C-alpha cells in the first residue's frame, strides 16, 4: 500500500470513528429531536468510512477477526450505554440483552465456544428472561417516564471516569509474563479441556457452586412465598 | 486509550517462541504525514518505546483491546449501580460488571492458557489449561444465584411498599 493512501486511510479511520460517535451523541440529545434524520445518516456514513478504512488497513490474515471484534465491541458498548441510560427499565433490559450477545461473540473470538453457548442459553435465555418477568410483575406501567437517576448521578459519573482512568493506567504499567506461544491456536478441544478443569482441578469449587445454587433456589422460594 | 500499544514488546526468548513470532505477519510502521510528525514531537517519550504508531490499536487485536473494553464495561456498570434509583436497573448494571470480569478472564486465558505439564514429557506439546474459562463458569453460576435472590428480594419489597425505588427502602431508618 502506498504511503499517501495509508495516511489518508488512517485519518479516515480516526475521524470516521470520532464523527460517528459525535453524531450519535448529538442525535440522542433532546434538543436535536426535530433533526434526527440527517444526524443519523451522517453517523451511518462515518461508520461506513471507519469500516472501509479498517478493512483496507488490516493485514489479510487478521482482517476477519478484527472486523468481528469491532462489530461485537459496538454491540457491547452500545448496549451497556443504553442499559445504564434508558429511562424505561424494560428497554434497559433489552439493551443489556444486546450487550450480552456481544459478549457471547467475544467468547467465540477467544476460543471459548462452551462459554458462548452458556452465555446465550443461561444468561440470555434464563437470567434475562427472569429479569423481564420481574420487571413485568413489579411495575404497573412498563413505559414509565419517571426520572431514573438519583441526584448523586454526576458524582457517580465522575467517580466511574476516575475509576476507568485508574484501571487503564494500572493495565498500562502492569507487567505481564511473556506469552508461551504467541497467537497459536489451542491444541486440543476447548470444551474437553474445560471439562477436565472443572471436574478434575476445580472439583471443590464446582461442588460449592452447586450448593450455592441450591441455597439460592430455596432462598428465593422462601422469600416470595405468600403466607 | 492507545497508550498500551506504545510499550515495546518483549523479544522472543526460546527458539519455539521465535518460530511462532516469525509466522505472525509483521505490520510495517505507519506513516501519518505532517500531523503524525507533530504528534511525534509532542509525545517523543511515548513513541520512543514503539516502532509503530497507535493505529495498531484498531488493526491488531490483542489482549489490550479486551482489557480496555472490559474496563469500559465495568465502569459503565459501576455508574449504573451507583446512579440508578430503580432496584432492577441496579441489578442489570451488576450483570454488566460481572460480564466485564468474564471477558477479561476468557481473553487472558487465550493468551496465557498454555502451560507445560506432564503431557509435555510424552508429546512435546504445551497443554492448554482452561482455568480462566472455568472461573468464568463460576462467575456465571454466581450471577444466576444473585439474580434469583435479588429478584425475590425486590418482589417481596414491592409487596410490602408498592414500589421498587431504592429511596423507599427506609423501613429500618431510625
Structure description:
The complex is a heterodimer of chains A (227) and B (174). Chain A is mostly helical. Chain A has three domains: 1-57; 59-140, Four Helix Bundle (Hemerythrin (Met), subunit A), CATH 1.20.120; 189-227. Chain A has helices at 3-28, 36-57, 63-85, 89-109, 113-138, 153-173, 190-201, 203-224. In chain A, α4 (89-109) runs antiparallel to α5 (113-138). The longest helix of chain A is centred in the first third of the chain and has 26 residues, at 3-28. Chain A is globular. The mean pLDDT of chain A is 84. By secondary structure, chain B is mainly alpha-helical. Chain B has a domain at 50-112 and 126-174: Helix Hairpins (Orthogonal Bundle), CATH 1.10.287.3510. Chain B is built from eight helices and two strands; from the N terminus they run ααααααβαβα. In chain B, strands 1-2 form a two-stranded antiparallel sheet. The radius of gyration of chain B is 24 Å and the shape is elongated. In chain B, 40% of the residues are buried. The chains are: A mainly alpha (227), B mainly alpha (174).
Query: If you average the pLDDT of chain A, what whole number results?
Result: 84
Give the CATH class of the domain at 50-112 and 126-174 in chain B: Mainly Alpha
Low-confidence stretches of chain B: 45-53, 116-121
Average pLDDT, all residues of chain B: 75
Instruction: Provide the helix percentage of chain A.
Output: over 70%
Q: What percent of residues of chain B adopt helix (DSSP H or I)?
A: 55-70%
Largest sheet of chain B: 2 strands, antiparallel
User: Could you say what the CATH topology of the domain at 50-112 and 126-174 in chain B is called?
Assistant: Helix Hairpins
